[in-house]
Specification:
Structural class: alpha+beta
Number of domains: 2
Number of strands: 8
Radius of gyration: 24 Å
Strand content: 15-25%
Distance between the termini: 17 Å
Helix content: 40-55%
């Protein structure tokens, strides 16, 4: 998820009762829900380093207690006020775990089992940026603030703020479950159709940021892949309306390109690679091999793609990786 969502979730978790567990709970949680995303610094090493480390080591189960300890140490260092390390660690650990839990629901996914496995886990039912979650958190926090303001003005004893925060978390769970059910429906619709005269080998449905009923459908057949960028569950689905990407027959060039570092890192990350092999003018007989991850848009505009130029003799002249 985006860091706005992570930060708001930390504030709501604090107001939902964790502020009673440890002093500075809000600060602990805001730091904890964001600290795993320090792995974006790998982008300074280039696209290869970014894809290799993003949502890997810092999002793994192994790293969670270590990151929680780091958060507690940072708060202790700057606050200079003694507090229970055990209670603070528990609060920070909840915040650290909330980050990959949110990320698990979206398309990019996380590698929870690193370093024992590089397997990606992604549920695909909530977008990386979901405006309705922003609205839910924003309205909830505004309600908490207004409630306290009104109570102070009239001199009444304010109701415990954690009740409203708990309501927000419950509504978030209901929204997430509803998104999950819609995702399952979208997958079922995709699986129930024929494409190019055959049943699909596999399908996937990717969420969109604003409309819970609109999905991006992905289909793989024996010789093709399809993308349906505007699949609306409130309308009749047309299986013939998608963009088709045929799998190339030039396997030798693909094998050679796949041996480069750029393609090795990309194929370890990509779950829906669409391959293409096209001739290039220079040198004569050379081809451009490209693989783009359909989860992040059509191949012609995807930032998650690897490319290599392979000459007629099977030599890789250059390769690159984008993200």
């Amino acid at each position: 998820m985006d860091n706005i969502t992570h930060t708001l979730s930390g504030v709501v978790l604090s107001r939902a009762g964790l502020s009673r567990v440890s002093p500075h709970a809000t600060l602990l949680l805001v730091l904890a829900v964001n600290i795993a995303d320090l792995d974006v610094l790998a982008a300074f090493t280039g696209p290869t380093g970014y894809l290799r480390y993003h949502r890997g080591p810092t999002h793994s189960l192994v790293a969670m207690p270590l990151l929680a300890l780091l958060v507690v140490a940072l708060v202790r260092l700057f606050r200079r006020k003694k507090f229970s390390w055990g209670r603070a660690f528990l609060v920070a650990l909840i915040g650290v775990a909330a980050n990959p839990l949110f990320d698990l629901t979206n398309t990019y996914g996380v590698r929870l089992l690193w370093p024992f496995s590089d397997q990606w886990f992604n549920a695909d039912f909530i977008a990386i940026v979901d405006v309705w979650i922003w609205v839910l958190f924003g309205v909830g926090l505004a309600a908490l603030w207004l409630s306290g303001l009104v109570s102070r003005e009239i001199g009444a004893r304010p109701s415990p703020p954690h009740r409203a925060a708990i309501v927000v978390l419950c509504l978030l769970a209901v929204y997430g479950f509803g998104r999950f059910l819609l995702h399952e429906r979208a997958v079922a619709v995709l699986e129930s159709r024929m494409y190019q005269g055959e049943a699909p080998l596999r399908v996937a449905a990717m969420p969109t940021p604003a409309n819970p009923f609109r999905w991006v459908g992905l289909v793989e057949g024996r010789a093709f892949m399809e993308m349906h960028p505007d699949m609306n569950l409130l309308e009749e689905f047309d299986p013939s309306g998608g963009a088709i990407y045929y799998k190339p027959e030039s396997r030798a060039a693909i094998v050679r390109a796949s041996q480069t570092q750029a393609f090795r890192v990309f194929t370890a990350f990509s779950q829906w690679p669409a391959w293409s092999v096209t001739p290039v003018a220079d040198p004569e007989g050379a081809v451009m091999v490209k693989a783009a991850d359909l989860r992040f848009g059509p191949p012609e505009s995807s930032h998650f793609a690897a490319a290599a130029v392979v000459d007629a003799g099977g030599n890789v002249l250059r390769s690159s990786l984008g993200q």
